[in-house]
Specification:
Elements (H helix, E strand, L loop, with lengths): L3 E6 L2 E6 L7 E4 L8 H8 L4 E3 L9 E3 L5 H9 L11 E3 L5 E7 L3 E7 L5 E6 L1 H5 L2 H11 L7 E5 L9 E3 H8 L8 H9 L6 E2 L6 E4 L1 H12 L6 E3 L14 H4 L5 E6 L2
Length: 263
């Protein structure tokens, strides 16, 4: 059983997962707001180079080779806002690289390869999950020499299925990533029949509750990744206002950051 640990940095709490112990990493809380990744990297590995992107709820995953962090950092220090490439995932290409994603209900997913040391950080809301961003990232890691049995995946704090009400169209789009069916009602009915289904009932007509993190877990299972190598944080951003921002709860565009550092 994988354990999640509360850590403390200067009196501020953040989470780590035992599955990712080989890598400096953290799922940060709203108490760190408004610090940027360039400041937060001090918590994990002060000498690491920071990489981040402009998130757009898609499934594009960029290698750090495509980014120039030193230029970004100098530009930001000059008081300018540099244009960041649009993507929702990052994959390391070298050592001492800190890759970051932000979220405020969507799922932050950190992946590490115990053999190569390669890491990935992904932002997977319902749209990204529907577009298979986690399988897309893993395919890119495999193309760079990883093997499924070497991967360790931690899914961080996000809105839980029990409180995430969506319309059935959203649920169908998301669950279509799990079954090869064309008829919307067949997709929904089939996934509702899964053990520990990511689709939960809702009293309002045309609505259901959607567990995005469970959907990601099922995507990983279908890829052939052992469930023992996947950990899901027992924390809900919506239900824990003392620690996490939630866009669904507050309607504010404030985020918490998550990151992992390549060795």
């Amino acid at each position: 059983m994988h354990t999640w640990h509360w850590r403390n940095w200067n009196g501020l709490p953040y989470l780590t997962c035992s599955l990712l112990e080989p890598w400096p990493h953290g799922f940060f809380t709203q108490q760190f707001w408004p610090r940027s990744p360039e400041e937060l990297v001090e918590v994990l590995q002060p000498t690491a180079v920071v990489y981040r992107v402009k998130q757009v709820h898609g499934n594009k995953v960029l290698s750090t080779e495509k980014l120039t962090p030193q230029v970004l950092q100098k530009t930001e220090l000059a008081g300018e806002t540099p244009e960041k490439p649009e993507a929702d995932g990052l994959m390391s290409a070298g050592s001492q690289e800190a890759i970051w994603v932000c979220s405020a209900d969507c799922s932050p997913v950190l992946i590490g390869d115990i053999q190569t040391g390669q890491v990935a950080a992904l932002h997977s809301g319902w749209r990204g999950t529907a577009a298979n961003i986690v399988p897309v990232a893993i395919a890119q890691m495999l193309a760079r020499g990883s093997k499924l049995e070497q991967l360790r995946v931690a899914i961080g704090p996000a809105i839980s299925g029990e409180v995430y009400q969506v319309n059935t169209e959203v649920a169908i789009q998301t669950c279509a990533s799990l079954v090869d069916l064309e008829t919307p009602n067949d997709i929904l009915k089939t996934v509702q029949g899964f053990p520990n289904s990511p689709i939960l009932p809702d009293s309002e007509p045309g609505k259901v509750r959607l567990d995005v993190r469970r959907t990601i877990q099922l995507q990983l299972e279908q890829l052939g990744i052992n469930s023992e190598e996947v950990a899901c944080a027992p924390h809900c951003t919506y239900q824990e206002p003392e620690n996490f921002f939630s866009y669904r709860r507050d309607g504010q565009k404030k985020v918490q950051w998550s990151a992992i550092v390549s060795p």
